[in-house]
């Protein structure tokens, strides 16, 4: 509860027309300066400072007729700053030399930072001094982390280069700006425009500025000609005295009210006496909050993971289809992934991936993993078909899983420092940010696993399920190792032995040939699931290039001799395991040849997804 005014620290001199806005002398002078220039600060609020919140605002009373019923609440005016004292290049008095501000080689960001640096150096000679003297000189953003603190960010986007990149860009701006000022030569104290001062100014803008467009500040006739170049910028940062003291809370209901004369904040909802009054900067994730503001929000409901993805289809035909896809319009190099719900739903819809991942990213992956058969389908049908096929959709899920697994592995590789108790607020913020990133990745992987397990069950058959329905075949594969080849040259250390075909693919290859020969002889399949094989064989009869007879018509010159040799070896293997088990007629009396294997293996490659070496999924 707020102390009575009589017990607060008395100020040395307060004009009779002013009330006590704060027990802090500098905050009191700031409020008086804003109000003297036409601003407003509610009589129901006070400014205060403490070690936890820094400079803040809290409620000390209710206005007359103020209803505490949520269904009767209107807006409550909080604070207003006149446009005339909003700090930006739109109001640069005094200003840097016009030749500097007009220079096309100096970025607008650099001009803003040098302009703020100038007023910081002017001290009480600056007309904004009551505001500028309260601006912090130290921050908890990563550019202020030391080497030990930066270790807590290792493996994250910030630790992987984002911080270093921002520092490099800002330092380049500073160096170019100082050089330009030296060449102009009519500015005093150029040596005081140090890197530390520039970093401070740049961080002040990232941590407390408002975008000019959103607050209604525009370049107009009040800006001198030296800033004409700024008129071409869509939006630029502005500093709003007194208004920017309100801290951020994402759930806060607040109204921004810009007018040509002022910028105001109004609260919506009940504000208990003694509570801090917050602003709402928007749905900013912890990565953006830490990088720009130097704080994070534990358990933030709007936290996200920035995933940078720049790969595009290389095949000209696929690239052309991508250009025509509706989702291409939503494509971005950076996607922001939110935490997935942890529910495990066996009923997976056709848009399940889009419901949990950015639509454009999912659709791009569809084209990155497309095979020739699916590409032909898109060429012949609607080029915007979604999903393209069951196999393709599962391949997308596996591709996303691989990308997320790699990202999580990189993060966990550097987990050791974060297992130690944090020593300061910077490390506490880094740990919260780090854990939030990991939580998002884990939730994404869990959701993908659920998708891979449950997507389109009637249109797929796993090698594991086929073996469980055919125990004798399972035992045969255990008794007779899969044929192997060797790779490498030189001594024994350079030779690697590998299986010519993965077990999962071999099982499905055998399954396709068994079902094919059964139907060729007019027999029905005795193996489950019958409905799957009925539909699969029907698909083989319709699919271009899938029938066995068509496969034998392939031009001999187009055949790969190495592949033919491998196919013959696998055919011999299949014949061997059949003859070695007389009671088990794997292929309904047929002797396999290399062409049988090549045909079935091509189908597997077109319609199969490998989860790992032993588990493969055949799709309709």
UniProtKB/TrEMBL annotation:
| UniProt keyword annotations, A-Z | Methyltransferase, S-adenosyl-L-methionine, Transferase
Residues of the region (Disordered) are 410-430
Q: Which domain of life is it from?
A: Eukaryota
Q: Say if the entry is tagged with keyword Cell division.
A: no
Coiled-coil residue windows:
none
Q: Which PANTHER family match?
A: PROTEIN-LYSINE N-METHYLTRANSFERASE EFM1-RELATED, UNCHARACTERIZED PUTATIVE METHYLTRANSFERASE
Q: What's the name of the protein?
A: SET domain-containing protein
């Amino acid at each position: 509860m707020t102390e009575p005014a009589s017990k607060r620290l008395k100020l040395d001199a307060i004009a009779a027309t002013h009330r006590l806005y704060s027990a802090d002398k500098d905050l009191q002078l700031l409020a008086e300066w804003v109000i003297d220039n036409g601003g407003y600060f509610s009589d129901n609020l006070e400014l205060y400072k403490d070690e936890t919140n820094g400079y803040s605002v809290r409620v000390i009373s209710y206005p007359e007729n103020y209803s505490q019923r949520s269904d009767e609440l209107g807006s409550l005016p909080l604070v207003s700053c006149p446009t005339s004292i909003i700090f930006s290049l739109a109001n640069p008095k005094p200003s840097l030399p016009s030749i500097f501000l007009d220079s096309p080689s100096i970025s607008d960001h650099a001009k803003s930072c040098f302009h703020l640096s100038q007023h910081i150096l002017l001290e009480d000679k600056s007309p904004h001094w009551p505001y500028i003297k309260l601006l912090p000189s130290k921050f908890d953003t990563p550019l202020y982390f030391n080497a030990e603190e930066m270790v807590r960010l290792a493996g994250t986007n910030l630790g992987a280069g984002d911080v270093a990149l921002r520092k490099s860009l800002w330092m380049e701006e500073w160096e170019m700006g100082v050089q330009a000022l030296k060449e102009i030569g009519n500015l005093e104290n150029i040596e005081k425009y140090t890197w530390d001062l520039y970093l401070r100014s740049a961080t002040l803008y990232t941590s407390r500025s408002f975008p000019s467009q959103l607050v209604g500040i525009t370049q107009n006739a009040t800006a001198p000609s030296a800033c004409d170049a700024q008129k071409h910028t869509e939006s630029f940062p502005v500093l709003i005295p007194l208004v920017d003291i309100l801290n951020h809370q994402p759930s806060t209901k607040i109204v921004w009210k810009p007018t040509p004369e002022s910028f105001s904040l109004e609260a919506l909802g009940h504000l208990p006496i003694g509570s801090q009054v917050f602003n709402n900067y928007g749905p900013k994730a912890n990565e953006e909050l830490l990088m720009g503001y130097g704080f994070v929000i534990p358990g933030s409901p709007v936290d996200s993971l920035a995933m940078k993805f720049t790969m595009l289809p290389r095949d000209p035909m696929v690239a052309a289809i991508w250009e025509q896809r509706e989702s291409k319009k939503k494509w971005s190099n950076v996607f922001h992934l939110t935490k997935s719900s942890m529910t495990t739903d066996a009923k997976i819809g056709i848009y399940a991936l889009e419901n949990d991942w950015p639509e454009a990213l999912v659709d791009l992956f569809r084209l990155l993993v497309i095979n020739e058969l699916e590409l032909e389908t898109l060429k012949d049908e609607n080029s915007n078909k979604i999903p393209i096929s069951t196999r393709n959709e599962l391949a997308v899920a596996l591709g996303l899983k691989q990308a997320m697994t790699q990202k999580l592995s990189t993060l966990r590789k550097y987990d050791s420092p974060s297992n130690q108790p944090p020593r300061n607020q910077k490390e506490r913020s880094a740990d919260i940010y780090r854990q939030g990133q990991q939580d998002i990745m884990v939730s994404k992987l869990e959701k993908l696993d659920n998708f891979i397990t449950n997507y389109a069950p009637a249109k797929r058959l796993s090698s594991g399920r086929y073996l469980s329905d055919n125990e004798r075949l399972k035992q045969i594969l255990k008794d007779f190792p899969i044929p192997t080849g060797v790779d490498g040259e030189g001594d024994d250390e350079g030779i690697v032995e590998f299986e010519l075909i993965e077990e999962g693919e071999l099982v499905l290859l055998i399954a396709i040939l068994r079902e094919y020969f059964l139907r060729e002889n007019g027999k029905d399949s005795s193996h489950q699931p019958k409905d799957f094989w009925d539909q699969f064989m029907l698909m083989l009869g319709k699919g271009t290039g899938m029938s066995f007879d068509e496969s034998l018509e392939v031009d001999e010159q187009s055949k790969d001799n190495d592949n033919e040799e491998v196919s013959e070896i696998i055919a011999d293997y299949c014949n061997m395991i059949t003859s070695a088990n007389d009671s088990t007629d794997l292929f309904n009396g047929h002797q396999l040849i290399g062409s049988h294997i090549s045909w079935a293996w091509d189908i597997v490659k077109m319609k199969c997804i490998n989860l790992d070496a032993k588990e493969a999924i055949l799709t309709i």
